[in-house]
Write a structure and sequence with these properties.
single chain, mainly beta, Porin, eight-stranded antiparallel beta barrel, 1 helix, elongated
Amino acid sequence: MKYLLLALLALAAAPRVQAQPESAYYGVALGDFDFEEHNFLGFPGVPVADTVSSYRLMVGYQFMEHLSVEGGYGKSGTIRDRITLPTFPSGTVDLDVGYEFTMLTIRLLGVLPFDNGVSLLGGLGYTDMKVDRDVTDGVDALSDDQSSNEPGYYIGAQYDWDRVAVRLSHEKFDFEGGVDLTETSLSFFYKL
């Protein structure tokens, strides 16, 4: 916590930086990936939930002072949970469930720069997700993968220096069917 406070203090004390309205950049985002599925395999009230680490490799181009486009490739860690399902006629079975996400993203960002080097960002994205799923009861195992295309909503705050920038952001993906998926990340960018 004290390192976070020192970093925030250093950002506040940094000199004002002139915005470069047109620039290409690339970087890496490291974050927390929160997953919650409320009705596993259609069973009401059977949740699967976990928080894992994630990363993304990012490229972007800010082609106007207030508009930027970004693309990225990323992966999540393996989401793991243990659930209990009812069986017929009466009884239960315990299952170990694992998910791993691979994401290819493009997003359009609106940028609101301030005179002190801070910018607020908001945008819409589109993510092509591949989900690898493993389910086992300790004896039998099932593995499959699914692909989906999900819109996302993005907000963030960024601090710019001459050639580098740091950003704190939050993205919510708009899944259907009782799935909540969000990613909170810290990104580091180098401007060309």
